[in-house]
Amino acid sequence: MNFDPRYSNRSFSSVGTRPIRPDGVDKVTGRARYGADFNMAGQLVGRILRSPHAHAVIKKIDTSKAEKLAGVKAVITAKDLPDLTDGDAAMYDILDNCMARKKALYDGHAVAAVAAIDARTARQALKLIEVDYEVLPHVTDVDEAMKHHAPLINDAIFTEGLEEKPVKPSNVTKRTQYGHGDVHQGFAQADFVVERSFKTEQTHQGYIEPHACVASVNPDGTAELWVCTQGHFVYRQHCAQLLGMEASKLRVTSSEIGGGFGGKTHVWAEPVALALSRKAGRPVKLVMTREEVFRASGPTSATSIDVKIGAKKDGTITAAEATLRYSCGPYAGMWAEIGAMTAFACYKLENVKTVGYEVLVNRPKTAAYRAPSAPMAAFAVESAVDELAKEIGMDPVDFRIKNAAQEGTRASYGPVYGPIGIGPTLEAVKNHPHMKAPLGLNQGRGMACGFWFNFGGQTCTDLNIGMDGSVSLAVGTVDVGGSRASLSLVAAEELGIDYSHVKAIVADTSSLGYNDMTDGSRGTFSSSMATISAARNAIKVLRERAAQMWDIGVDDVAWEKGHAVAKGEKHGNLGKLSLKEIAAASGKTGGPIAGHSELVADGAGVSFATHICDIEVDPETGSTRVLRYTVVQDAGKAVHPTYVEGQYQGGAAQGIGWALNEEYIYGKDGRLQNPGFLDYRIPVCSDLPMIDTQILEIPNPNHPYGVRGVGETSIVPPLAAIANAVSNAVGVRMSHIPMSPPRILAALEAEREG
Amino acid sequence: MVEVTLWGSLGAAAGGQSKLDIEAKDIRELFRKLAEQYPALEPLIDRGIAVAIDGTIYRDTWSKELPEGAEIFLLPRLAGG
Fold first, then answer.
1. pLDDT for the residue A553
2. Helical spans, DSSP H, in A393-522
3. Hey, which of A251, A266, A682, B23 would disulfide with A206, CB 3.0 to 4.6 Å?
4. Nearest CA of chain B to the CA of A102: how many Å?
5. In chain B, what are the domain boundaries?
6. Residue ranges with strand state E in A702-748
7. DSSP at A50
8. Element (H or E) spanning A24, and its range?
9. Three-class DSSP category at A280
């Protein structure tokens, strides 16, 4: 990589403006094609049979009756998806999750699938498949699963990370620990100590678009997959590995995406669709129902967290400790570990210790959910921080400012911070008019901070200049939040042309080099870096062509505001050559003009946000209403400020739903009771106030424009900010998310009864 | 020579050490020498390790240089959403 990603201070013409996104009209008119909007000639309908049991041995599956049903073209079980993972434990878990092999591990686990000529026939066929289950005891609660008598989900799991190697299997797959200093000594120095326990229930990302794909395997072994995903290159890798194909033989095209938030970062049903197509010899369309999305895609962890924080009378925190237990579904994960890393990342701490436990339960496989694991840890820590400020008698913002991490602080997860933005977000909140607005009866205000790492990753981009001077930009990161607009702005900025002359697309896997998926807030950060690099490579070619046209040396040609300019007095009589003029002559000066870039966009830089929430609680019903909400977050540089604000508002909106209403509810039978948006209540427009935003721009030193990722951090503070607001409104510390009306009433009643 | 700090479970694979002195000019050389000196680390390196250099996290850039005196911290490779 010969690209210098370092930040340089500069002025901008296009970056920072707010043009309409190129995909906007198609999305509001219904023309945009999502996962389920694609069809192929002769396609079949795929349907999946799912376990009704939370935990059961699959003794036998008889598909013979289904196979004989007229119109059924293929029936598959785990036998049709043999284990080709070659010892890759993470991929084996994905395979087993796509199609159960020996045991059904949760209500909704796939056990068989059919492809038929229509949906009715496919549904009939599912009913004809006979599965002989031996039902086993199950466990769905994270704390219950840790107890020694809990039903064992996988008897091959022995807890990693313990000082002594365990002799018995356990539902706890791993213990991890972070921190520095001596917390016992730190607590001994404290004048005040707060110790609290918290729980958060499992939530789903709640993306509006269900998982959907069309798979077509050709007789020669090549295949195509049209799919809704956050990373079509990653889906290609997964599917190729699980089906024993060469990656280059599988062409994956990403559809528009109606939300992912981490839930579409690995395959769920796509290998099943490909296996059905391979067996049937026809294309297969597979679309999950909403019920299937809830039961069998990847929600976030349920958690149980203990926090202890001590401080001196002057407000200096002397020690902080947390134990975090996160559910992983039935497969090993590192969700508690991420919680342990992020829990105290906002603070400057001499003595800190966090311990994480990854816990198997009979629930769907946990997946990433926007800054995965950080919101729950922040809820627990920021609630305790508020309590401690109250005990000391300090303003909660001042208390946080006094203890905020800064450049040179050793982060609670290990390294020393470079330039970071937690302090400026807190100062901005302290001075925000929202903090001074009056509150009425039964109303409370809360604020909280949040941290997320942000990532970069492998990125490849093509920039092609047409003979009319217009520019095609092909990127490989799926556009989840307006990145095609942002990346077009970046290309326009570098080339010195108008935004309207740039058209960005998300290229398929056969048209562009590998790209990591759009996760870790990396889409605009990484692809803007690659776009800058590609544009600069194209400018090099443009200068060479202009030099040819002028018959002068290329070193005498500069690029300024969309034009080649001949430098020096000896070329003073040469006028400028526009990009359009150079492009028009390209057929005679060496052919097409393009810039290409492949790089690893590392150095994304950590991200911080602080949120303020006003809420009103009806003490008779426990119902809540968010009155006002403000997000303050560092963007490094907002390429398209409207879409940065959209990310801030979206995170806050999701967080409001998570904090107040959303939860997976399991019955005693281990079955999910509320797999639909009627009973799993996400916020709708009428539930939300206008969410105010304030963008701070503290440049990231590792990006040419100073860009930081912005997609995830905005969901980290809401649970805590809202919990602090509700607690302040009702005068009772709320320690269990979601703070649904029954839970608030129960807390008030418990307080009254002492 | 750079001093490398290992997070908990990585330290266990390096014989219980949390800090190591390694002669390495870039991330590639660091990983290679860690695997040579502590074979138990190799599968963990293969599974994915991030390297924080003076607080900035690098996940994939083998060629990233390790400046003399820089703080080098090895972390698990994390998932994003």
1. 96
2. 396-403, 422-430, 483-495
3. A682
4. 26
5. 2-76
6. 736-737
7. E
8. helix A24-29
9. helix
- What DSSP character marks residue A409? P
Interchain pair B5, A414: CB under 8 A: yes
pTM above 0.90, yes or no: yes
| Residue numbers in A near B78 (CB within 8 A) | 334, 338, 341, 453, 455, 520
CB contact under 8 Å between A520 and B7, yes or no, is no
How confident is the model at residue B60, as a pLDDT?
79
ipTM of the assembly?
A: 0.93
DSSP letters along A86-139, please?
A: TT-HHHHHHHHHHS-SSEE-STT-EEEEEEESSHHHHHHHHHH-EEEEEE----
**Residue whose C-alpha is closest to residue A361's, from A326, A329, A325, A324:** A329
Please check whether residue A61 is in contact with residue A130, taking contact to mean a CB–CB distance below 8 angstroms: yes
Mutation target vs B (from A257, A370, A455, A524; most B CBs, 10 A cutoff)? A455
Min Cα–Cα distance to chain B from A369, Å: 5
Instruction: Supply φ then ψ for residue A45, to 5 degrees.
Output: -100, 125
What is the model's pLDDT at position A431?
98
Give one word for A260, left, alpha or beta, with left for phi > 0 and alpha for psi -120 to 50: alpha
Nearest to A417 among B55, B75, B80 (CB): B55
Q: Where are the domains of chain A?
A: 24-32+456-601, 147-417, 437-447+605-754
With respect to CATH, is domain A147-417 assigned 3.30.365.10? yes
Question: A437-447+605-754: same fold as A24-32+456-601?
Answer: yes
The fold adopted by the segment(s) B2-76 is: Ubiquitin-like (UB roll) (3.10.20)
Query: Could you state, in chain order, the average pLDDT of each consecutive group of 10 residues for chain A (754 residues)?
Result: 88 97 95 97 98 98 98 98 96 98 98 98 98 98 97 96 93 95 98 98 98 98 98 98 98 98 97 98 98 98 98 98 98 97 98 98 98 98 98 98 96 92 96 98 98 94 98 98 97 98 98 96 97 98 98 97 95 93 98 97 92 97 98 97 98 98 98 97 95 96 95 98 98 98 96 88
Closest residue in A to B57 (Cα) is A603
Task: Please indicate whether, in this complex, the C-beta atoms of A712 and B80 are within 8 angstroms of each other.
Answer: yes
Check CB contact under 8 Å for A413 and B75.
yes
Q: Alpha-carbon distance A220 to A534, whole Å?
A: 36
Specify the CATH architecture of the domain A437-447+605-754.
2-Layer Sandwich (3.30)
| A 629-668: CB under 8 A from B | none
